[in-house]
Each structure stands twice: as C-alpha cells, then as structure tokens.
Amino acid sequence: MLWLEFSIVLFFIFLGSKMGNIGIGYAGGAGVIVLTMFLGLKAGSVPVDVIMIIMAVIAAIAAMQKAGGMDYLVHLSEKALRSNPQHITFMAPMVTYTMTLLAGTGHTAYSTLPVIAEVSKEQGIRPSRPLSIAVVASQIAITASPISAAVVIFAGLLEPLGVSYITLLAIAIPSTALACVVGAIAANFLGQPLEKDTVYQNKLKEGLIKIKGETDYSPTKESKISVAIFLTAILCVVTYATFISKKIAIIENPTISRNDAIVAIMLLAAALISLICKVDLAEISSMSTFK
C-alpha cells in the first residue's frame, strides 16, 4: 500500500509539472482527493498560515517587479559581480543567496544566472563552476529567509521546544551562508579551465560563442522606491518578531501574531508600491511571478 500511495504522489507531481505554472497546485489538490477519499488516508491540517504568507509575499514581489524593482536588483547584482569578477565563483552564490534571503523565494535568482555566465566567460572561468553553486545557494537561502514559508513552518515546530523564531534565524543565516562558501570552494575545482577546453576554444574561434559585456541599464525612481519599500517591509517583519519574542518581550501582549503580521506587512508593502509607483494591478495577474 505504501508503494501505491508513493506512486500516486509521484504521478500527480509529474502531472502538475507537465501542466506547468499553477498546475502543480491543481494537481496537488487532485492528489489529496485520491489519497483521502479513495485510499482512506487521513488528511492533515491545511497550512493556512503558510499559504497566506506565500500569497502575500508573491503579491509584494509582483508589485515590485511591475515597478521595475526586480530589474534594479539584477542591475545591483551585476554591479556586485563585476566589481570582483575574478572571484565570480565565490561572488555568485553570495548574490543569489542574498536575493533569496530577502525575497523568500529562489525564483528571484533566476534572472541573475545569465549575468553570472556572461561574467564567467569574460574572465575565462568555466561557467558551470559559479552557476552550479549559485543555484544551490539560491535554494539553501530559503531555509534562512525571514519571510519564507519554510522558516515559518520550522519556527512553529521549534517554538514549543524553546527555540524562538529569532534564535532560528540567528543560527540558520550564518550556517547556511558558511555552507555556501564551502560549496563555492569545492565548485572552484570543477571541470577543466576554459583555456584548456578544446571544444570551447574551437567554438570561440568559430564565433559560436559571443561575449556581450555589461548591459546598459538606467534604474528609474520607481524601481528604487519599490525595492526600498520591500526591504523596509522585511526589516519590519524581523523587528516585530524580535519585539514579541519571549526573550526580548518589548511587546508583551501583541495584538497580532507573527505569522499574521508577516501577511499584513507584506500586503501593506504591495499596496504602498502600487500606490506610490502607480502600478497597474490589472497586469500583475499575468506576470511571470505567478507562473
């Protein structure tokens, strides 16, 4: 029976991946129906807090992206990478780690991957080295982000054991960052150097590989404002969680819980970005952030 249940789970994951976009969620609901109503498994409680946090964070990110904030973050990432290009294998994971840490989702790091590959080729560094650890770092950071669903769930499990949300972040952030550094050291020795790769050198001589150089981008005022609002919202979340923690207890009788505060603050951030940056809310639903 266990193998049948496991096969059903894999089937609906595969079905959702084939549907694409939000189809993974649709397929997940169908899988729950099959497992509970037809196979008699008992369903667990619906993680309403987690779902609401994910929706609120996505709303804020979507508003920021529409205001040009994501392009601005990619621009800042490119500047950081080009400031020390010879150490791209170590800089790349730190950039993607930071982006995920702030956004709560690894999807924000995807837009930096072409930049990482480009800077690597310019420096004669095998792109697979920084790219491999950069992707890993973007996912590891999810377990340390103050607004990620993973941290919220884990904090809920640990708080009854005496480990607070702030303590969890104080442990997770430095440990995961250090793990990325160790991973970058290992990735720095992967594969042949490009100057010794005959296939790459032949393609370079034939003109099949082109180096584009630094992109021409001028950030708008709205893009800077949207990023500032989003980062301020994250700071507010961490500050409020610190104030209501039992160890700090600056706010002894909070009127709103930490999880509800995360949802409210991120929705407030989305509202402020939309109003100040004049974001067209009708266009947000069709943006790639939701796909």
Topology (SSEs and partners):
Layout lengths: L1 H18 L3 H16 L9 H19 L2 H15 L4 H16 L9 H10 L5 H13 L8 H10 L6 H23 L10 H8 L15 H24 L13 H19 L4 H4 L7
Helix pairs in contact: 1-2, 3-8, 3-11, 3-12, 4-5, 4-11, 5-7, 5-9, 6-7, 7-9, 11-12
Enumerate the spans where pLDDT stays under 50 for 5 or more consecutive residues: none
Give the overall form: globular
Mean pLDDT: 87
Distance between the termini: 34 Å
**Count of the separate structural domains:** 2
User: Helix- and strand-based class?
Assistant: mainly alpha
Indicate the radius of gyration in whole angstroms: 22 Å
Relevant terms:
2 domains; C4-dicarboxylate transmembrane transporter activity
Describe this structure in words.
The protein is mainly alpha-helical and 291 residues long. The chain has two domains: 2-38; 48-290, no CATH class. It is built from 13 helices and no strands. The protein has helices at 2-19, 23-38, 48-66, 69-83, 88-103, 113-122, 128-140, 149-158, 165-187, 198-205, 221-244, 258-276, 281-284. α4 crosses α11 and α5 (88-103) packs parallel to α7. It starts with a helix and ends in a 7-residue tail after the last helix. The mean pLDDT is 87. It is a multi-pass membrane protein.
